[in-house]
Every structure is written in structure tokens, then in C-alpha cells.
Specification:
Blueprint: H1 3-32, H2 36-42, H3 47-60
Helix pairs in contact: 1-2, 2-3
């Protein structure tokens, strides 16, 4: 398999994972009445990824 196809597959997997995390974080925020910052902490999102998820959650709100 050529490298371009491998890269596309890897990007697709990463996007799918991010969408799943966002969906989970929204559910946590809704059911527990938490802020985005509290939700990423509750879900144990790695520190180096938190800002990106918080930005996505607040942009969609």
C-alpha cells in the first residue's frame, strides 16, 4: 500500500477518534452539567490534547 493511502487512513482514524471524544465530552457536559474544562478533566483527556477539545466544544456551543 502506498504511503499516501496509509496517511489518508491514519488521518481518517484520527478524525473519527476526535469526533467520538467530542460526542462523549458533550454527553458528560450535558448529563453532569459540567463546563468543557471540567468535562475534559473528568474524562482524563491527556493534558496536551485538552486545549484543542475545549476549543472545539466552545466553538460548537
Amino acid at each position: 500500500m502506498c504511503q499516501a493511502i496509509k496517511d489518508i487512513k491514519a488521518d481518517s482514524r484520527a478524525e473519527g477518534r476526535a469526533e467520538g471524544v467530542i460526542k462523549t465530552l458533550k454527553a458528560i457536559m450535558s448529563s453532569l452539567h459540567l463546563t468543557a474544562e471540567q468535562a475534559v478533566a473528568a474524562a482524563n483527556v491527556p493534558e496536551n490534547e485538552r486545549k484543542a477539545y475545549i476549543a472545539k466544544l466552545t466553538a460548537e456551543a
